[in-house]
Design a protein that fits this description.
The chain crosses the membrane at residues 14-33, 45-66, 111-129, 135-162, 169-186, 192-216, 228-247, 259-282, 289-311, 317-334. It comes from Hibiscus sabdariffa (roselle). Residues 344-366 have a biased composition (Polar residues). It is found in: Membrane. It is a single chain. This protein has 13 helices and 2 strands. The protein is mainly alpha-helical and 366 residues long. The protein has a two-stranded antiparallel ribbon with strand order 1-2. The longest helix has 38 residues, at 2-39. It is globular and about 60 Å long. The two termini are 34 Å apart.
């Protein structure tokens, strides 16, 4: 009996490592692919807004096909907690009857406009500005600037009342900020325009995470990455289409950029969607700590490999030292967040009153 159990455990362990390697490879590869498409003389597609719009449209279509054509479950938004407060008592049988036809449509619209739309808009902003930064700064330097993300999330969280300022968190934020400053000081070819774009993308991602906390978790919504992309991608595409229509479409018309390499762009979009699938697989088979550690490994892979792939990436000792300090701060931040989430989960499980989640999720670590 022991041998089959050991074989099963070994198989699961190998599968987990395979998913982690797939996630790191796809995540790093997607960053390199985007940089190559945007800045390569062979592709000649310096339109980050159009590229991001293409990603969102491709993701929207594939999510629709997977959920409708192949019947893959998306954990659709349900309304039971809200409808419990909107029941009607029948005078004839004294039974509780939900006025679903009257309330469901109204509350679905409200949830979409107050939850999905802000998240989709910030997601679009993050991808747009982040991809634009690649036109001005190296991949490695962009990755180093992204290390400031916990600082932005913490500051906005304190402003929104989600985080509490403490000496420990202040020290962690100071370490991360100092590391990013040192890494920036060591950058040889720095472009402040690129820095502004990258920091704008960081702020957008921080706002998206804050909206996820305020508008999703507090309302009881639990969506896995596929469900999230199913709802968010169309909204993000719409948010990107409007500025693309005025900012990049005229340039594409003037330069005759419609005769492009469709195979390359489609492969680039497919890699983006495959990356989202790999995230789904990783968080389904690992813990929150594992996905964070994998993210740190991926960041180092991007920084080091980009120095070999791109001519505009020139790493210095100060770069590496500063980034190492920032990553140490990020690791401390992740450890602090994980401990707090664990204590919160224990506290929630000890409550006597049962809660009814608006959706069921197979990925609680998300």
């Amino acid at each position: 009996m022991a041998d089959p159990v050991k074989k099963k455990m070994l198989k699961e362990e190998i599968l987990t490592y395979a998913y982690l390697i797939l996630y790191i490879a796809l995540s790093s590869g997607q960053i390199f692919f985007n940089k190559w498409v945007l800045s390569s003389k062979e592709i000649n597609f310096p339109y980050p807004l159009g590229l991001t719009l293409l990603h969102m449209l491709f993701s929207s279509v594939l999510c629709f096909l997977l959920t409708k054509g192949f019947k893959i479950r998306t954990h659709a938004i349900q309304l039971m907690p809200i409808l419990f407060s909107h029941w009607k008592i029948s005078n004839e049988r004294q039974l509780l009857q939900f006025d679903v036809s009257e309330d469901a449509g109204k509350w679905r619209t409200k949830i979409y406009t107050t939850s999905v739309v802000p998240i989709g808009a910030m997601f679009a902003m993050t991808l747009w500005l982040g991809n634009t930064a690649y036109l001005y700064i190296s991949v490695a330097f962009a990755q180093m600037l992204k290390a400031i993300m916990p600082v932005a999330v913490f500051i906005l969280g304190v402003a929104a009342g989600l985080e509490i300022m403490s000496c420990r968190m202040l020290l962690i934020m100071s370490v991360i900020s100092f590391g990013v400053l040192v890494a920036s000081y060591g950058e040889i070819n720095i472009s402040w325009i690129g820095v502004v774009y990258q920091m704008g993308g960081v702020v957008g991602e921080a706002l998206r995470l804050i909206f996820m906390e305020i508008l999703v978790k507090r309302k009881g919504l639990k969506l896995n990455p596929i469900s999230l992309m199913y709802y968010v991608s169309p909204c993000s595409a719409l948010c990107l289409f409007i500025p693309w229509l005025f900012l990049e479409k005229p340039k594409m018309d003037a330069h005759g950029m419609w005769n492009l390499q469709p195979v390359v762009l489609m492969l680039n979009s497919l890699c983006t969607f495959a990356l989202n699938l790999s995230v789904f697989l990783v968080i389904s088979h690992t813990s929150a700590l594992t996905i964070r550690v994998a993210g740190v490994v991926k960041d180092w892979v991007v920084v080091l490999v980009s120095a070999l792939l791109f001519a505009d990436t020139k790493l210095t000792v100060i770069n590496i030292l500063g980034y190492g300090i920032a990553i140490a701060g990020v690791a401390a931040y992740n450890n602090h967040k994980l401990k707090r989430e664990a204590s919160r989960n224990i506290s929630d499980n000890s409550q006597d009153a049962p809660t009814i989640p608006m959706t069921t999720s197979s990925n609680p670590n998300r």
